[in-house]
Amino acid sequence: MKRVLVADDKPTGRELVRTVLENSGYEVFEASDGSEAVNQAQQLQPDLIILDIHMPGLDGFGVIEKLRRLEQFAATPIIALTASAMMGDRERAMAAGFTGYITKPIGLSALRAEVARLLR
Amino acid sequence: MPDQRFRQLLEAAPDAILQVDEEGRIVLLNRVTEEMFGYPREELLGQPVEVLIPEELRNAHGGHRARYRTQPATRAMGTGLALEGLRKDGSRFPVEISLSPASSEEGFHVTAIVRDTTERKLAEDRFRAAQEQYTKKLAETNRELELRSREIERADRLKSEFLASMSHELRTPLHTIIGFSELLGEELEGPLNEKQKRFIQHIHNDSMHLLQLINDILDLSKIEAGRLELRPEPFDVATVVTESLASIRTLADAKMLSLETVLDVPAALEADRLRVKQVLVNLLSNAVKFTPDGGQVRVEAYIRNGLVAFTVSDTGVGIASEEHQSIFDKFHQVGATAKGVREGTGLGLAITKRLVEEHGGTIQVESEPNRGSRFTFTIPLQRPGRKANA
Question: How many domains does chain A have?
Fold first, then answer.
């Protein structure tokens, strides 16, 4: 079973993604902030990570910067999840090393498709 | 010159005229000299001219006189200096003096013409004061303007930051509302009865509507604040039309509408691809929304006079002529003709018009109630300010 780590400071946001992905047959783990995401990632070595960009403390950009420096996460697919709708955000995320980009509110099929694409 | 006529000439002058001999003694003076300096003639005659000069300058004056003797010429005295005369009563007044050499059988003389410039100096001082005050005021106004413009810049920045964070804060709860309602509607967590399904659909639809409103308001605010940044790139019109049609095809199919395209744009269009697509999708969604089942929606694009003209026409309910202008206003919803259609934000056409205009194009509508609508917008082939062969 493929493992997915979801980091989002909002519990409802985590539950939504968890439910959708569990329905699709993934094993889902949660982190409620950036530092926890970094720790969890190192312990669990997930197949895919979904990071909310906007988290207090270490934000999504901070997390990916730490993870991408580690050998073990050099090739892990990491999806940015953001409620920001500003032009140029996607480019910034891609430049920071994200492999996928999904805006909130998510369409469930878009989320499923993006995860499936990156885990194929 | 006869002495009488010489005297008359001397006395007719408005300035003080006096003559001094080689030793600097006053040998000739007119009445104006007496009045100006406050001495009777006989008191001055034979006196060193220095009595008419402020004390602190008297010593130097002998030297000046000696130098003038070596280079005699008609000229102004002390050019650029603020010269002063000394009256008998000790008071001083500003003067202008011009000197001329006058040789006669009695030896080398110098004629001095002295003008009291008190009045002129007063006027000049007043003028200078007024000028200084004006300059000061101007500087103050400039400073104020600069402050004001800095304030406006700051307010503008705060406004966009506010918009960005407001959009973010509104979208975050919408994310879970939309997500969970969609999730429930999928019935993966258990079957719903018809009523529950309908209710969930209502929640989902209206939260999507709210999302559209948030997006539209953000768009419009950016446009109105002049913060919309167009990202022009050359692209193929046919591809964008195909993509736009794809995004409304499901809705069109549900209403059994036929979609037609007539494209004749051989050149690439240089414009903001996403924004042009947004305009097309907007017009196409309206066409689909306002066209009854089984109708027709048609997209055309062709080049005319350096512009690409796009038309989106439908066989829908149409728009009364009195609304042809106001449909492009914010929050205007088409009135009588739109019975039963209610899910727009009232911002779509306002945004559409501004997006077209930001590109340097225009948009207009031809329509009659129950005869369909035809929207035409133009986008310059090249970005404004760039030549075709550049």
Answer: 1
pLDDT: is B163 or A95 the higher one? A95
DSSP secondary structure string for all residues of A71-93: GGGSS--EEEEE----TTHHHHH
Of B113-122, B283-292, B305-314, B380-389, minimum mean pLDDT range: B380-389
CATH of the domain at A31: 3.40.50.2300
* DSSP per-residue string spanning B97-116: EEEEEEEETTEEEEEEEEEE
Looking only at Cα atoms, what is the longest distance across chain B? 137
pLDDT at B355 over 90: yes
Preferred mutation among B160, B171, B175, B180 to probe A, highest tally of A CBs within 10 A: B175
d(CA B185, CA B197): 6
- State the average pLDDT over residues A97-115: 92
* Average confidence (pLDDT) over B144-162: 88
pTM for this prediction: 0.60
Euclidean distance between the first and the last CA atom of chain B, given in angstroms as a whole number: 83
Among candidate residues B303, B292, B293, B287, the one with its CA nearest the CA of residue B349: B287
Q: Which amino acid is present at B250?
A: T
φ and ψ at B331, to 5 degrees?
60, 15
Specify the pLDDT at position B387: 43
Question: What pLDDT digit, counting tens, does each position of B359-371 carry?
Answer: 999 999 999 998 9
Backbone angles phi, psi at B26, to 5 degrees: -75, 125
Is residue B337 scored above 60 in pLDDT?
Answer: no
The DSSP secondary structure of B192-233, one letter per residue, reads: --HHHHHHHHHHHHHHHHHHHHHHHHHHHHHHHTT-----EE
CB-CB neighbors (< 8 A) of A19 in chain B: 183, 189
Three-class secondary structure of residue A69 per DSSP:
helix
Q: Which domain holds residue A112?
A: 3-118
pLDDT at B213: 84
* % residues pLDDT > 90 (chain B): 56
Contact B168 A84 (CB under 8 A): yes
Question: Residue B229 is inside which H or E element, if any?
Answer: none
Does the distance separating the beta carbons of A87 and B171 come in below 8 Å?
Answer: no
Contact yes or no for B221/B351 (Cβ under 8 A): no
CA distance B185 to chain A (A): 11
Query: Which residue on chain B is closest to A54 by alpha carbon?
Result: B168
B225 interaction partners in chain A (CB closer than 8 Å): none
